[in-house]
Write a structure and sequence with these properties.
Helix content: 25-40%
Number of domains: 1
Number of strands: 5
Radius of gyration: 14 Å
Distance between the termini: 21 Å
Structural class: alpha+beta
Strand order of the largest sheet: 1-2-3-4-5
Shape: globular
């Protein structure tokens, strides 16, 4: 799953968001916590991601309204690799396998 950065001008709290099948949304907060929210379809995710104020959208439509779990309490040292590992592990807990891409495969 690709995590999409949210510019700080749009949200002082939400740093990155990602969506995967069938209905999982991952939210990385600037202070470090990473959460997984369920029952987030692609339309709701797109509205959240594209909102001028993602934090306001999150509080109005997701927080307290959708099932969630905290995946990590603070930012990993090597952000991208460890976040991908945490998200992949969360997806695997739901029986969703993530494709393993070979970097620099030349194909």
């Amino acid at each position: 799953m690709e995590m999409i950065p949210i510019p700080e001008e749009r949200s002082t709290q939400i740093e990155e968001v990602g969506h995967s099948c069938p209905d999982l949304c991952h939210v990385q907060f600037r202070r470090g916590a990473l959460y997984e929210f369920r029952e987030i379809d692609s339309d709701l995710f797109q509205q959240f991601r594209d909102s001028a104020r993602p934090g306001e959208f999150f509080r109005a439509h997701i927080k307290g309204k959708k099932p969630y779990q905290k995946i990590a309490a603070k930012k990993p040292e090597t952000r991208t690799d460890e976040i991908v590992e945490l998200v992949d592990a969360a997806l695997n807990r739901h029986g969703i396998e993530t494709p393993q891409e070979e970097l620099n495969s030349g194909e």
